[in-house]
């Protein structure tokens, strides 16, 4: 049976809306130079070595092995190593925020492929993958935890165990957006916990934390402290993007 819906019919608008949701008219990863306002994948700055051995801050020039940036030399993070796939800046902002707040998941396969590249040394030593948890109230509002989406895909592609029950956010924290480095640290202090019945699961293990954007590293640091206190042998972190200039802090 063939039938048509009048152009101004609300049913047609609903059908078009549904189709846009299923098949976005313009992919997040479009490389069409004429695509107005769409982030261009080829302008994204990917991060690889050389970088700070601890936080993964990219260095311009090759240095001797295991060199730390100034910040990590002064204050070594609780996590062992953190790596990120690309720089969070003007070129990648829409890409990241579309995923973080806009519910766009059409880039997840490419995102995790790039995370696997940046974190290949970490993934080789990982026992368990754990996403940075959201508080339940934020999860209800946002409908999904973008770190868990990345973690699930990575675990599947790498054949690693995913664990979303051993690290929980026990209190609701303010958004980290707009806070100074010390404000961010205070905001997440004591915010995470490992339930007693999950301690055995992480005891002596090498954990890989997954998050979307690393800014000052305060959240990863708080998670790593909690996991190590609960018995984890090593805690590393792999993120989609990281801020390298304070001016680019996401909100
Ligand atoms: Zn560093």
Q: What is the topological layout?
A:
Elements (H helix, E strand, L loop, with lengths): L9 H13 L47 H5 L7 E6 L5 H8 L7 H11 L1 H5 L3 E4 L4 H7 L3 H13 L2 E2 L5 E2 L11 H8 L3 E2 L5 H4 L3 E9 L3 H12 L4 E9 L9
Parallel strand pairs: 1-7, 2-3, 2-6, 6-7
Antiparallel strand pairs: 4-5
Helix pairs in contact: 4-7, 8-10
Bound molecules: zinc ion (ZN).
The site of zinc ion (ZN) has 8 residues, from helix 2.
Description:
This protein has 251 residues and is an alpha/beta fold. It has a single domain (47-245), classed as Rossmann fold, CATH 3.40.50. The protein is built from ten helices and seven strands. The chain has helices at residues 10-22, 70-74, 93-100, 108-118, 120-124, 136-142, 146-158, 181-188, 199-202, 218-229; strands spanning 82-87, 128-131, 161-162, 168-169, 192-193, 206-214, 234-242. The strands form two sheets. It has a five-stranded parallel sheet. Strands 4-5 form a two-stranded antiparallel ribbon. Helix 10 links the parallel strand 6 and strand 7. The chain is globular, with a radius of gyration of 20 Å. It starts with 9 loop residues before the first helix and ends in a 9-residue tail after the last strand. The model is unreliable at 1-7 and 16-27 (pLDDT under 50). Bound molecules: zinc ion.
List keywords for this structure.
single chain, 251 residues, alpha/beta, Rossmann fold, five-stranded parallel β-sheet, globular, disordered N terminus, binds zinc ion
């Amino acid at each position: 049976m063939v039938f048509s819906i009048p152009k101004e019919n609300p049913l047609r608008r609903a059908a078009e809306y549904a189709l846009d949701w299923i098949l976005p008219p313009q992919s997040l990863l479009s490389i069409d130079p004429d695509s107005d306002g769409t982030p261009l994948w080829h302008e994204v700055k990917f991060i690889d070595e050389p970088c700070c051995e601890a936080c993964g801050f990219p260095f311009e020039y090759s240095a001797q092995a295991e060199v730390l940036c100034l910040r990590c030399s002064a204050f070594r993070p609780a996590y062992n190593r953190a790596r990120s796939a690309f720089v969070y800046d003007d070129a990648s902002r829409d890409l990241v925020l579309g995923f973080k707040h806009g519910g766009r998941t059409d880039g997840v396969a490419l995102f995790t492929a790039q995370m696997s590249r940046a974190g290949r040394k970490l993934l080789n030593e990982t026992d368990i993958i754990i996403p940075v948890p959201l508080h339940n109230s934020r999860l209800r509002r946002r409908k999904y935890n973008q770190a868990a989406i990345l973690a699930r895909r990575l675990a599947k592609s790498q054949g690693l165990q995913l664990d979303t029950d051993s690290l929980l956010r026990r209190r609701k924290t303010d958004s980290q957006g707009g806070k100074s480095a010390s404000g961010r640290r205070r905001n997440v202090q004591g915010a995470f916990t490992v339930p007693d019945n999950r301690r055995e699961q992480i005891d002596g293990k090498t954990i890989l934390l997954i998050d979307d954007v690393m800014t000052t590293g305060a959240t990863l640091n708080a998670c790593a402290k909690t996991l190590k206190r609960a018995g984890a042998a090593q805690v590393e972190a792999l993120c989609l993007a990281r801020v390298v200039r304070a001016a680019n802090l996401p909100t």
